[in-house]
Amino acid sequence: MKIKNLDIKGFGIFNDFSIKSFSPNLNFFYGPNESGKSTLTNYFNYIFFGKELYKKYIPLSGKDFGGKISLEKDGKTYIIERYENISLIIDENAKVIDDIPNNFFMNGISNSLYENLFSLKLEELEKLNLKDKDINSIIFSAGTGLNNVFINELIEKIDSEKKLILTGKGNNNHLSKKNDLLNLLEEKEKKLEEEIKKYPILIEKKSELIENKKNLTEKINKTNEEQSSYDSALRFYDIFTDQKELTEKIEKFKDTVYFPNNGEIRYSNLKNQKLDIEKTQNLIKTEIDSLYKQKDSLNIEEKILKNREKIELLHDDYPKYLETSKKLNDKKEKIRIIKKDLEEKIKYIGQDWNIEKLLKVKITSDSITKAQNFSFEMNNIDKETISLKNNIDTEQKKLNKIETEIDLLKQEISEYSGEKRNIEEIRYKRNKIFKLQSVLNNESTLEKERDSKHSKIQNLNIKEENLRNRIETLNENFKNKKYFALFTIALILSAPAFYFNITLGVIIALISIFLIILGKNNNKSIESEKEKYTDDLNEVNDDLSKLYEQIKPINEQLINHEIEKNNLLKELEYSEKEIDVEKIINKMDDLQDEYSEFKKLEEKINNLEKDKINLKTLINEMHEKSYNIEEDKKTLLKEWKRWIRINNYEENYNIHNFGNFINNIENAKKIYIDFEQKSNELSALKEEVLEYESSLKEVFTSLEFMNYEYSDIKNINKLLEQNKHKKIEYDKISKQIVEKEEFYKKNLIIFDTINNEIEHLLKSASSKNEDEYYKMFEKKNIYNTIKLNLEKTNKIISENFFDEKSKNELISIVEKHSKTDIEKKIIELENLKTEYFENIKTIEQKLHEIEEKCINIAESDELIITKQKILTLKEELKNLTEKWAKLSIIKYFFNKTTDFFENNKKAVFERAADNVSYITENNYRLLFKNSELILEDFEKTQKTANLWSDGTLDQVFLSTRLAFIDEHNRNSETLPVFLDDILVKSDFNRKRKVLELLIEFSRNNQTFIFSNNKNTFETFKEILTKNSLKNSKYFILEKGNIVDEK
Amino acid sequence: MKENILKFIHCSDLHIDSIINIKNSNFLINDLSNTNLKVFKKIAETAVNEKVDFILISGDVFDNAYLSVKSKNEFSNILNILNENSIKVYISFSKNDNYSFWKNFIKIPPNVHIFSSEKIDKIEFLKDENKICNIYGKSECSENDILDTPINNEKQYFSIGLFHFNLEESNKKNVEIINRMKFKKIDYWALGSKHSKEILSLTPHIIYPGIIQGRNFFENNTKGFYIVEIDKNYEINLKFEKSQILNFSEIVIDTTELKSNQDLCSLINEKIDALKEKYTEHLAINILLTGKTNLYYLFEEKYINKITKEIREYHNYSDRIIIIENLTLNIKPNTDFETRKKTNDFTSRYLKEMEKILEENPVENIVKILKFEDEYFRTKKVFDSLSEEEIMELFFNSAYEGYSTLEGEKK
Questions:
Q1: DSSP code for A329
Q2: Among residues A374, A584, A836, B191, which is most buried (max CB within 10 A)?
């Protein structure tokens, strides 16, 4: 790849700066400090790699940062543009290449590698230190991007990093430690899992212990119970004994058991009750007698009371009766008026109409609808009739108008002549005229053609004559022949002249020969001219014959056209003089127009005739329709009359005013309904009045009132009220009597009951009389005392012993054992209890331990946390392992790389050695022994690197670098090389040699040398001049501008 | 509004005692401790709020029977809450649950029915003393249990099959099993075992609701449970509810178009903000850088750590927990290696050596390289656990780093 030119918009000190062309081989830049040499190198790096390192070159002026360069690769030209770090590659067809510059042009190498390999600067050389023990490695590392760091160093670094990862040093973040930690955690995990697995066993054990504890507790309770029984037995020993004695005593008074409870009191109560009752009975009897007397003193009229309801009802209804009578009279008057109205309405319907007829007639919704339909139909018929009549009139008027129009048109059409009517003749003539016109045109064309050919012929004839004349002239060539003979004779005669005068003879001969030759030449040209003219003449003659042949058919055609023209004229009856084709055509056109007008008129008449016929037909149809409608109307009327008759409607009404009939009927019927309703009401009222009067009559009759009026009911009602009061009184007294008698009866029953009870008491007490009864009572008292004492004893016992079982137990203890025995037993039981308590304590301790364990397990998240830690730790281990693996893999490849180069070093250093030999003019040879570089002089003295001079070191470094570059470019695109002030430490001779080497190097690798050393520059210019190298250039830079280039 | 005769929740694979696989354990101790348990509690709350009739749990309630007694007690507490709200729970345990181990020391309230592992049972569900549906189930079931489920002849009632089984573990094809399941005339197969939700069929319904909370970056789609409503015509309405409180997401950044390292930070933050917009729950995020970049040289360990720290600090004060778990590189330098190989230098030799490894059996070759190292035995355990893809990724990352170092781009 070769850089062809550059164009910088803004980069460092360069603004709108361009170099139009670089040399494809060596480009030398000479300039003082700050002229832009390094900036230029960095510009190329920026274009190719665009790293952010070059931000310092952003122009302060605000101009676009960047620019472009043009380069050549594989014979093609490309442009790389980079502005604001965005690059664009454009090929020579202005197509954008989708790639980045360092991939496309720089073999994909990195910026660092490019700078470290293809760029050598003074700073780099200054870093070389002869005292550096790794100088060999540094030199050897020239082929990498590691910047004077050797690969082996890197490998060592990798090893130490790996060691750090595996075993650490003073920190815990290494693999071993983490592995150990992981093992611990995994053990812990297992342990925790085992614990959890044992959890159900713990729970079971806990349940067992609880069960045991429960059993022991039960035993203790039982012992307590027993002990308590014995305690109680001891405590209550005396009481139980008492109880026994009382129980025996009470047996003796057993027979008083049946003496009734509270027998004495009960007996005296019963006795008192008996006396009370007797007293009461006497009183009641007296009262009853008095009431009977009272009852008899009342005098009630039964008859009136018997009719009580009727009288009351009649009395209550009396005002209503008066009102009803009044209503009845009013109704009668109303009915009379309605009847009169009804009769009037009926008369209005028709003369011979009456109520009977009215009732017979039925106006249903169907009949109303039917009447409406009739009316509707009749209306439609009438409407249609009127409409038809109007249409007939309108159409008749139209017909008249059309007839008038037809007459006018016929008159107009009769004015057209026959000529104007014969279209065929007009067309025929027109065609002929056109044909004639065509013939005339053809004739004219042919004549023109003929004339042109004639003129050509004429020209050719003139040409022919000229040619002939020329040929004639050329024939005078004969003279030339004579002239030729003359010169030949002169030549012959020159022989004797030669004899006489050599010079003269020679002159004559020479002149003759010269003239002969001239003449011959002249003759030749004339002959050829003549030939040419003859050819031309022949050509003209050929042309003439052709033309003549062409004219012949034209003439024939003209003759034919003439004949045709004459025939046409004859047909059209025109002479040739008269013929004006255009005029005739115009006339034909006029005729044709008039014919069209005629035809239009004809058509119009025909259309009108058609219309006329259509109208007539229409009018006839309308008349027919009108007739049909009339018939329909008659039919409708017939049907109407028949319907009227069937329904018994009034015939005096027609279809149109039948609505009135319906209204009248309806009105009459409404009145009739009203009349009927009122009549019914009247009947009802009458009935009511009569009913009342008859009831009244009935009552009076039953009361045996002879002369009465309807108003007497009030007096009767008064009497009734009086008797009612008496009756109430009577009933009240009767009720009292009944109550008292009932009470008397009840008391008798009670009295009997008391007597029975007294009997029963005596019997219960096994006594026959009162005295015996009281004696038994006293015995019972004694019994009760004993019983009370026994109860007290029993109460004490029952208060202290709630259940029968424990009581029986005590009793059996008391019966079986003495007091002393009981005391002994109590002590025994106490000892047993103590033993049990101790066992429980042991169990509780164990239980506590187990519960604690269970709680720990139940509430613990430790296993989960441990698992979490294990997971995290495994992740960390994975990361460390991957880190270690990464380093191992990188180390592997580095080793492989260096192994390879160890094996291939030779080729590189052989080349480097050649370079060194050249630079030192074979005074030194570069060797390497045991991976060490050695310089051997011509006396075979060997110097290791630490014994070289600075300049020599630089030169060896450069030589190696160039060798590496060559090696790098062996199978790939060559890349430009940048050398910046590298000859500072070289002496004059070495400098020159280096430059020569670089020139040679630049034949295959485009090279850029930068120097601020005038001496170096001058040396370069001198070499250029001497070697006449066409493809090297130098530029003189000054403050960002090229001041000179060559 | 449609009248529903039945409403229930179907969830599975609770994994209540499971560990959340993230390295940053601070969050796990505090806000995200017992994540799956918290999620199940949320589900129980939803059940109460939605007034469901019952909850179906189809297995894998726990990761492992021996992991934690506490979590089982807490599970029991949640079941008690449901009991107090008269919500029944039907459970078919899986083998991992190992119910026989803990059934004697963890109290299960009376509203819970646990299907036996001996045989398939049929339970009737009654509502207001009317039978509404039949539920078939068996704990620790196998393929044969699914196929031996009796044919449901009571078509007048809704029927459910509750099992923990992954159909894909069967030797038979899915289609064959599904067809045989259809034959059983069960309306709703409530299955468990798959951690991603899946509806295998809608006639009948064969549903995997998936795990209720993802636990690592492989379980990274939306997790939850189904609320199922059945109307009078036995039409089934499914509604999937998200239950996860922690979402695992991966952000992939293609560094190919990256112009500067500032772009990278802002790009990552943009993507994280987009995730925050999309999801309302806490986020655990893996960031993966891919692509071929000109900035490859920048990505050294120090720089990666720096960026990770910056991003973590940036999102430290979010409205929820944002865990930046890893920032992983899967990038390569933007170099045309084929062209690069053509030169004759250390780097091209390096690339050619790389090529040799990749030619045939690359994984074997890589392991051979490592086995050659003396200390390999310390790392063998980890390597044995790596997949082939992971080994190849490691190889490429190493190789590119070595390449970059050789080119002077990286230190």
A1: H
A2: B191
Q: Quote the tokens at residue A169.
A: 């040093």
At A186 the pLDDT is 93
Residues A464, A476: Cα–Cα separation, whole Å: 19
- Categorize the per-residue pLDDT at A593 as very low, low, confident or very high, splitting at 50, 70 and 90: confident
Chain A residues with CB inside 8 Å of B380's CB? none
At residue B1, the pLDDT reads 44
Inspect the interface and report whether the beta carbons of A196 and B395 lie closer than 8 Å: no
CA dihedral (B395, B396, B402, B403) positive or negative? positive
Answer whether residue A71 shows pLDDT above 50. Answer: yes
Out of B342, B346, B406, the one facing A972 most closely (by C-beta) is B342
Strand partners, B247: B283
Q: Are B128 and B103 in contact (CB under 8 A)?
A: no
Cβ contact B370–A110 (<8 Å):
no
Is B248's pLDDT higher than 90? yes
Residues of chain B with C-beta less than 8 angstroms from the C-beta of A168: none
CA distance B14 to B41: 11
ipTM of the complex: 0.89
A538 vs A612 pLDDT, higher one: A612
Would the pLDDT of A911 be above 80? yes
Q: What length is written for chain B?
A: 411
Task: State mean pLDDT over B324-337.
Answer: 86
- In order of A306, A323, A686, A697, the CA distances from A712 in angstroms are 18, 17, 22, 11
3-class secondary-structure state, position A940: coil
The single-letter code of the amino acid at B296 is Y
Residue A422 confidence (pLDDT) above 80: no
Q: Measured on CA atoms in the order A517, A521, A526, A528, is the torsion positive or negative?
A: positive
> Maximum distance among all alpha carbons in chain B?
90
Say what the pLDDT of residue B411 is: 65
Give dist(CA B108, CA B95) in Å, integer.
Answer: 19
Count CA within 13 A, CB hemisphere, residue A468: 8
pLDDT greater than 70 at residue A780: yes
3-state secondary structure of A424: helix
Rounded Cα distance between A865 and A192, Å, is 11
Please check whether residue B63 is in contact with residue B17, taking contact to mean a CB–CB distance below 8 angstroms.
yes
CA distance A545 to A453: 12
Distance CA A622, CA B338 (A): 106
Q: Which of A46, A51, A44, A57 is nearest to A3 (CA)?
A: A44
Residue B275 pLDDT level (bands cut at 50, 70, 90) = very high
User: In terms of pLDDT, which residue wins out, B377 or A136?
Assistant: B377
Three-class secondary structure of residue A480 per DSSP: helix
Cβ contacts below 8 Å, chain A against chain B, sum to 199
Give the three-class secondary structure for A484. Answer: helix
Tokens of B264: 């990278």
